Amino acid sequence: MIPFDELVPHYRRARDRWSTAPALVAHYHTLVEAYEGTGQALIEAVKSFVECVCRTIITDYGGAVPGDPSATELLVAALERLGLRNSRGASRFDRVLSAHNKLADALSDCRNQDGPLAHGKDGYLDALGTHHVRMYLLTGDTILALLLGALEGTQPDLNHTREPYERFAHFNSAIDRNVGVYASVDLDDRLVILSFGTPGLPDGLELRVEPSRLLYQLDRTAFIEVLESLPRALDIEDAVAIPEAASGVPASTGSRTFQTLPTRLVASYSGPLNSFTAGLEAELLSLDLSVPPNASANLVASLLSTFEAASGLDWAQRPAMRARVLVGFKHVLRSIGARRSDQRQIAERLVEWFAARCPAGAEVTQ
Asked: What is the predicted pLDDT for the residue at 243?
């Protein structure tokens, strides 16, 4: 059997073009599995993949998806967003567009008539043959080739695109090189003020944002670290406690205070994680951690105590709780006098070490 990406390369090109789009990536894997398996769901998967690409283009380029559209209507709308419109014979290229529209029509018709999963079929009908499978795949691949070719050299609408920041490195670099930035603080409203100016914006642009929002959006770990550094008895009227679902620690309703991690060193540890002691000592030696001699003896006990207090069920799969463990480890490393430049890297290594051995928190022991 010819490898899928070799037979029809444009499905992979589309997947790589939108590598952060989970539905489109899942569609690609469904196609590959159908092709390498019985081919039973292949017609439906081809049509669905093409429609998924069309919808993504329409939305990212600032268009509106037609109501209850056919595959052909989606293709026409996507191509129009990319500057390819059928001019009713004014251009010879119209024949190419018309041919691709007919291919989209054919995909829909084949899905309705031949697709075994589109509608219930007689159980004694023959399964799809290899030549049919290749025909449907090549039809979709041809449509994708036109769409991806039209995408070359175009930019999605920055007001609507869901693509990540890294996708626009050329824009990011231009802004970073040429913008002037001034930061200040509004002490009355407790806001961070960022002012941006360019030669074309003499009056500049101003963003006013709460410190909490800035930290929460840009660095969730820093948000938690700042939160944990606040006084232990912080009145709930002046701030919002961490909900149990986010922190893994039940909020105290009786004392109306935040639940914070222990930051002091402990001299010894006796608990469900005792079996980790020798392994953790060996891991710390491999990290070449430079700490004062009088503090190293308490380090293992303090890390185990902190992990037991900070983790919980499925902690390694829950970003907020994982960040909480990371912050706790950083507090311990800071308390023993570890170099500040090493604290985050070593704390991250320790989180991975615990995740590999205790994925469900302190409730799992070796």
From this structure: 42
- 50 domain residue, yes or no: yes
Of the candidates 214, 217, 196, which has an alpha carbon nearest to the alpha carbon of residue 205?
196
Determine, yes or no, domain membership for 277: yes
Number of domains in the chain: 2
Which of 97, 118, 151 lies at the terminal end of a domain, its last residue?
151
Last residue of a domain, one of 111, 136, 151: 151
> For residue 92, what are the domain limits?
4-151
Greatest mean pLDDT among 95-99, 125-129, 229-233, 269-273: 269-273
Give the Cα separation of 345 and 351 in Å (integer). 10
Q: How many whole angstroms separate alpha carbon 298 and alpha carbon 31? A: 55
Residue 88 included in any domain: yes
Cα separation of 357 and 366, whole Å? Answer: 8
Instruction: Tell me the mean pLDDT in the region 270-277.
Output: 87
pLDDT digits (tens, 9 = 90+) for 34-50: 888 876 778 888 999 99
**Banded model confidence at residue 112, pLDDT cuts 50, 70, 90:** low
